[in-house]
Amino acid sequence: MAEQKPVKIMETVLRDAHQSLIATRMPTEMMLPIVEKMDKIGYHAVECWGGATFDASLRFLKEDPWDRLRKLRDGFKNTKLQMLFRGQNILGYRPYADDVVDSFVEKSIANGIDIIRIFDCLNDLRNLQEAVNATNKVKKQEGRGHAQVALSYTLGDAYTLEYWTDMAKKIEEMGADSICIKDMAGLLVPYKASELITAMKSVTKLPIQLHTHYTSGVASMTYLKAVEAGVDVIDCAISPFAMGTSQPATEVMVETFKGTPYDTGYDQNLLAEIADYFRPYRDECLASGLLNPKVMGVDIKTLLYQVPGGMLSNMVSQLKEQNAEDKYYDVLKEIPQVRKDLGEPPLVTPSSQIVGTQAVFNVLMGERYKMATKETKAVLRGEYGQTVKPMSQEVIDKVIPGEKRITCRPADLLENEMDKLESEMKEWKQQDEDVLSYALFPQVATDFFKYRQAQQEKVDMSVADTKNQAYPV
To answer: Taking the CB of residue 248, how many other CB atoms lie within 10 A of it?
Structure first.
């Protein structure tokens, strides 16, 4: 009898699945009624926070993201909750001082997060160290908290098996609890996955988790080969919110490994009930146009051009605005060149947008780097961190001639900011967490605080609008 090694599954329906398919618009009230059933499955974890959920909750849903987390924590009695954290950028778009990172980690765990998946768009481990340290500090004091470091998977000369195994060793030395291979564009093909997992398993004892998207159509097969090679956890989404730009379907992977040494032991009948719950909501999203059928298909161009789906659609709309759709293939050819000039970064938020926009400019201007975006300049200065390969000296001289470049960890240049942030927003503060919401999205959070105050002051409990969850706290 082969040794039993059940594969674990992390469920993404409450975070990445709806972020990928319906722009992170699933409200908390849609999530809560199914939590009790989800809690019985035995998932390794449920991803329910971080990424774009924070911004979308405040901006579009008029919800407090911290409140969502607390409600989910109340409901999930037996299941670990996981979030996605952009290293020194936390959940925002700029690097924050260490005291903000520390405070955010502490409050995330205090409000119910168990596992923090931390990544950086350049795979610069220096931008992840503070979040790992902060998680480990809470773990030491309270026995809760797990720091998972995610490597943004990408292709290119620099990204050899030796690069990935070297990174795995460094992550173990950093004090992380586990490693995730984060394949945001669906570039990892089945046999390469097998090779990658085998190589990484040979150099580290840390558990390895694999995250991919179905964009290029190979993700289920990639998971199959990865599991056979010894991967510990795979990220899946319940079927109504699976496939397309989301993850492979949970039930399909459970069925695939049934009766093998990798059998999850999950109850398909219970999973079917969870799928039944989400299906009408999916139909509603299709009917309203929130779910575009285009994102449900396979886009093999992802593999041909090694460009994430979101980056391609961004580029197409930029060309459309300039009446230059005929330049599509020129821009596709230009992307690898710009990426090389900027030190061959992985193409993930925000590096994908920076490279794509600069490629569009280069083609439309008819001269490379005649005009550079402020983000391109920031990358060249080293404001985002260190790239795997050196950046083009010729491009540096043309775009930021004579400017001083940053060689240290960018956050080393930042002063502590929590006190300053708190004094700026104190009139709105009702909980410590509000300071952090303001730190990440000052304008959006302030608008939300005003909305919240209006709800609290105008609503009498006897006439509370419970349908829209508008009532005094």
So the answer is: 26
